[in-house]
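Changelog note: in this version the structure field was regenerated for every chain. One regenerated record is shown below for reference.
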Amino acid sequence: MNEKTKDLITNRRAWHDYEILETFEAGLVLQGTEIKSLRQNGGSLQEAYVKTLKGEVWLIGSSIPPYKYGNVYNHEEKRDRKLLLHVREIESLRLAVQEKGLTVVALALYLKDGTAKIKIAIARGKKLVDKRHAIKERDDTRHMQRIMKDYK
């Protein structure tokens, strides 16, 4: 990401549990105190998933804690939030979810030029063997980098 973006929340667990096939950037419909809360102390995408309902895309299960100074105008912590995407993107997400073994997961929530955006992805769940293989590859790469560093 460039210098005009600021990460607020990342879902590192998604990279571990899923094989990411295709990513999308979507706008996020937020209430007044939600953006203030995100800027102040973030939230969580750990249990969040994306669902297509009646031609609209919704982020379900994400958590944005109430704003400290929000009083009666505060938002609900775990409410469903609408995502803003183009029609062709919504259709590709809907078709992907119908395919067996694919799902749509939230990867990161960030600010881009002052606007809240979310990065979502079409993903396939990894099996335990795949996770072990990814860990082994990462360890092998680190080992090779250490050897190359010592060799110089």
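Spot check on this record: Residues 63 and 78 are 5 Å apart (CA to CA). The chain has a mean pLDDT of 84.
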